[in-house]
Structure formats: C-alpha cells, structure tokens
Specification:
Blueprint lengths: L1 E6 L10 H10 L2 E7 L3 H13 L4 E5 L13 H9 L4 E10 L12 H4 L5 H31 L3 E6 L2 H11 L5 E3 L6 H10 L2 E4 L9 H9 L5 E3 L21 H12 L3 H16 L5
Length: about 280
C-alpha cells in the first residue's frame, strides 16, 4: 500500500478522466492521495474532491508562494475556515519561491559592482524586497495557522533556502514540515533532520541526472521520508514525458527501494508509517 502525499487533482489536467485516474491508483495499491491546494479556489476544489472520493482522497489547503501577489484581503479568514474541514490533513503547500523574480536583481548590474546605483536599480531593489516580504508574510501566517489548528505543513522551497528556514524556525517552532519534491543536498537534508522536518521524493529520483537526490535518499533515516508524485508534473521513468498521476508513485517507491537496497514492500511499510504519523490520518 502507498500514499501519494502530494498531488494536484484539482488541476485542469484531470478534468476529464479523474474517475479513471483514481481507479488506476487504487488498482496498484495507492490507497490514499493528498490533493494539494495552492489558491483559495484550488483549496475549495480540493475539498470537494476529498469529499467525493473519500476515503481515498484527503486534502491540504494553502497558498503557494507564486500565488501571493493577487491575494484577496480576507484570504487568511477564508483559508482558516477551509482548514476546519474534517478531511484536511495539512496546511500547504506554502513556502518561498525566488526562482522567477518580478525584476532583475540590481545587485548583478555593472553599476552595483562599482558601488553605484541608478534610480531604476533602487526601485528594482525595493520591488524585490516587497515581493520577498509578501511571500514571507503569507508563509508566516500559514505556519501560525498550522500551529493553531494542530496541523503540520507541506513546504515549497525554491532558490530560497536560508530565508525559508529562517521563517520556519521563527514563526512556529512547534510545527513540523515536509519539504516536498526535495532536490537539495545532503548538507541541506541534515539541516532539516536537525529540526525534525521530513522530505518527500517525486519521480525526479528516477531521472538520469539526479545522482545528488539519490545520494540524499540513501543517507536518510527511515523516519524522515515519504513518497509523492506532484502530479500532473514530474512523471517518473518509465513514463517520462507523460502526464503524471498518483498510480506512478509506485515507480518512485520502487526506485527508492533499489537505492536503499530494500524490497518495495519494505519501502511501503516505512513510508506508510511516516505518512500516517505526519498527517495524522483518521479512519474516516
């Protein structure tokens, strides 16, 4: 049995055949799927799917860092109400993502190297600071909500490692997170282990150029990792180039079994125990 701990079933990619997608997952032993909200509308849809496809589908509700710019003023009130739904098992995905800044970094300009700056560069610096501050604020509010609700968090981190850890350490030290789609280094993995956080792995572990990720998989203690698809993205080998779906989490687990020298059944036991503990699944 497996749990796909991170899927986006509310996305348009699954609009026409979700019944079949759920059935294919069940046929290969995927008995739980967490569908992840990234916007208020997406969270509402995720809760609808969790109700419709119970007991297989659960939901997490959150605001993705790339969705923070256009938030309504009452977004936190709305998210708080959504988080009270009985099939919500986590807050997220939330976090920080600096991969596509709204303006070029002025620190990289030729003038900056000479210790000078133009009016445009000053304005760009302020815009970048505001953008990062908005992400950090939305992340912080969700961490505090998680603490209030007694839930753990699903964390999205991209090109923002130290800032992400700083917010997480400061805002809600009691909350535990899973860094989803983990692609960091062994050193970064150890930083998470020291803080009691977890990592989950996608089809990336099967990619030819992912030796670093496989090294992390090999070194982690049993209680520190879970499996996911992040579908419809990151389909694992042998499905590269296809739409990813929850059934493919078995390929992720199979690769982890190979890396760690275990049977797939043993990886199932480990990851099921970890998912049950982290998300506090009920029998409902």
């Amino acid at each position: 049995m497996f749990t796909d701990t991170h899927a986006h079933l509310d996305f348009p990619d699954f609009q026409t055949d979700l019944d079949d997608v759920i059935q294919r997952a069940a046929q290969v032993g995927v008995h739980r799927i967490i569908t992840i909200g990234t916007t208020i509308a997406g969270c509402r849809r995720s809760l609808e799917l969790a109700d419709k496809y119970a007991p297989i589908v659960y939901a997490a509700v959150g605001i993705h860092p790339n969705e923070t710019e256009e938030l309504e003023d009452d977004w936190l009130d709305q998210l708080t109400q959504l988080a009270k739904h009985p099939r919500v098992v986590a807050i997220g995905e939330c976090g920080l993502d600096y991969h596509r800044p709204p303006v070029s970094d002025p620190a990289l300009s030729p003038l900056a190297a000479l210790g000078a700056s133009s009016t445009e560069e000053v304005e760009a610096t302020m815009r970048l600071m505001q953008w990062k501050e908005k992400q950090a604020y939305v992340f912080r509010m969700q961490l505090e909500l998680a603490a209030e609700m007694g839930l753990n968090v699903i964390i999205h981190q991209r090109d923002s490692w130290q800032d992400c850890l700083s917010v997480l350490d400061d805002a809600a030290p009691s909350v535990r997170g899973v860094f989803h789609c983990f692609g960091g280094t062994e050193s970064q993995a150890r930083e998470l282990l020291e803080r009691g956080h977890m990592m989950s792995f996608t089809g990336i572990v099967t990619f030819k150029n992912a030796e670093g990720v496989r090294d992390v998989v090999k070194m982690l203690p049993e209680n520190a990792f879970m499996v996911e698809t992040d579908c419809p993205y990151l389909a694992p080998v042998p499905h590269r180039g296809e739409r990813c779906e929850p059934a493919f989490v078995t390929h992720v687990a199979g690769k982890i079994a190979e890396i760690r020298g275990l049977s797939r059944e043993e990886v199932s036991r480990i990851t099921e125990q970890n998912a049950t503990r982290f998300f506090r699944f009920s029998a409902g």
